[in-house]
Design a protein that fits this description.
403 residues, mainly beta, four-stranded antiparallel beta sheet, globular, disordered N terminus
Length: 403
């Protein structure tokens, strides 16, 4: 029986709708892309036609709410998704759906507008990545197929049929032409999109369970792979061979992130622990950040070179400083487990998805000036409950501070 990340893998393929409960957002922003435009229009007409301009009037409240929002509204979606990916330069993001479709939205603080629907995969689409210049979209999934699409024309550029013997779990771009894929049974393949055949330039089977995440740094020498078997496996890209594989850890490795300009790599686990490695020293971690909750970390996103935001089965987004090693607080909340995260092109907005079928957006620009050296007082319980500015909840101490 698989533990937390194993549930996530199965969840990327099939979710029972009866188990999903959608809760309205605290500020009433939870609407679909189609609904949001209608809602915004009707609200605007109401404000324009209202003759009551007092601060307590409905029109004033609507105006105040519109002005104060510094992130896109919550997006309620029908299709369960496995991944979110922001465009590297435009105000667009894409979602990978379990129906096999990829949806592309244009976002702003006012609305999320569906601009493209790419019907790509016959089965669940599990992972998507925009190319560095944003002109192409890579996608892969349970149908064992890898597809490269033109973002502007929506036409397919390249199809790799039956790319793996088993369903593909994740994809990682190495450079403009090279990319890697990992499947459910631990096989990693390296591809060159310039090749017309479906043959990878390199393949290796070293892991005993699904490949959950893969990253490389600017040098493009090593590809680091996390696995559900609790190992970190590193491949030499140039030498096309295994570099090193760690001993088995007592939890599934679920996600990876690069920090300190690619000199540090962070690994998240199914028991909630974070392991920090020096780049090039992949055999054993250099530091460990113990879990606050003992619940799985399903995803992470670097916010700065020193701060990571993680999401997992405790239903919240948590910020952690790596140097010094310190819990910073809660960034945001969902009704169910947080499954995927990404950050927009200018680093101010992150998007998070949960099985409540909501994509929520959080303005995290305050991390640029947040003092990470000041520890939270009150021990573990304070760390578990402390809310940061983007959170939907307030700290009790903030209320008493105004008295």
């Amino acid at each position: 029986m698989k533990s937390n990340m194993g549930f996530l893998k199965d969840g990327r393929d099939e979710i029972d709708d009866d188990e999903i409960h959608v809760s309205d957002d605290d500020d009433g922003e939870e609407v679909s892309s189609e609904e949001s435009s209608d809602t915004d229009s009707s609200d605007a007409d109401f404000v324009e036609n209202s003759s009551d301009d007092s601060e307590d009037s409905p029109s004033a409240i609507l105006k105040s709410k519109e002005i104060q929002r510094n992130h896109p509204p919550t997006l309620s979606i029908e299709d369960t998704i496995a991944d979110i990916c922001f465009h590297p330069s435009n105000d667009l993001f894409a979602t990978a759906g379990l129906t096999g479709d990829v949806l592309i939205y244009k976002y702003s603080n006012e609305a999320n507008e569906l601009v493209s629907t790419l019907e790509l995969h016959e089965k669940a689409c599990r992972d998507i990545e925009f190319s560095e210049d944003g002109t192409m979209l890579y996608s892969t999934g349970k149908d064992k197929t890898i597809m490269i699409s033109d973002v502007e024309t929506e036409k397919l550029i390249h199809i790799f049929d039956n790319a793996h013997e088993h369903p593909v779990y994740c994809i990682a771009l190495v450079d403009d032409n090279l990319f890697a894929t990992g499947d459910d049974e631990g096989t990693v393949k390296l591809w060159d999109r310039r090749q017309k055949s479906n043959t990878p330039i390199f393949a290796l089977k070293e892991m005993d369970d699904f490949v959950s995440s893969m990253v490389t740094n600017d040098e493009k020498k090593f590809l680091v792979c996390a696995s559900g078997d609790g190992t970190l496996t590193t491949l030499n890209i140039r030498g096309k061979k295994l570099h090193v594989r760690t001993e088995d850890y007592p939890e599934e490795f679920t996600c990876l992130g690069l920090f300190k300009h690619g000199r540090k790599i962070l690994v998240g686990g199914s028991k909630g622990n974070l392991y920090l490695y020096n780049w090039g020293e992949f055999g054993l971690h250099s530091d460990e950040i113990p879990s606050l909750t003992k619940k799985s970390i399903n995803c992470m996103i670097p916010i700065t070179e020193n701060i990571v935001i993680t999401g997992g089965e405790d239903k919240v987004l948590r910020a952690t400083s790596l140097f010094p090693n310190r819990q910073l607080g809660i960034v945001g909340q969902h009704e169910l487990s947080v499954e995927c995260l990404d950050i927009c092109n200018d680093g101010t907005i992150i998007a998070s998805y949960s099985y409540d079928n909501c994509i929520k957006f959080w303005n995290v620009s305050y991390f640029e000036t947040l003092n990470v050296t000041k520890p939270l007082k009150g021990g573990k319980q304070k760390q578990l409950k402390h809310n940061l500015p983007s959170s939907k909840s307030e700290n009790a101490s903030d209320f008493f501070a105004d008295l």
